[in-house]
Amino acid sequence: MTFLLLLIPLFAMLNMVMGSVAIPISEVFDILLHPSSSAADKVHHIIILHTRLPQTLTAIACGAGLAVAGLEMQTVFHNPLAGPSVLGISSAASLGVAFVVLLSGTIGGGVMSQFGIFGNTALTLAAISGALAVMALIVYLSQKVEGNVTLLIVGVMIGYIASAIIGVLKYFSSEEDIRAYVIWGLGSFARVTGGQVYVFVGLMAVLLPLSMLLAKPLNMLLLGEQYALNLGLNLRRSRMLIIASAGILVAIVTAYCGPIMFLGLAVPHICRGLFGTADHRVLLPSTLLAGANLALICNLIARLPGFEGALPINSVTALIGAPVALWVLLSRK
Question: CB of 248 within 8 A of CB of 135?
Answer without folding.
Answer: yes
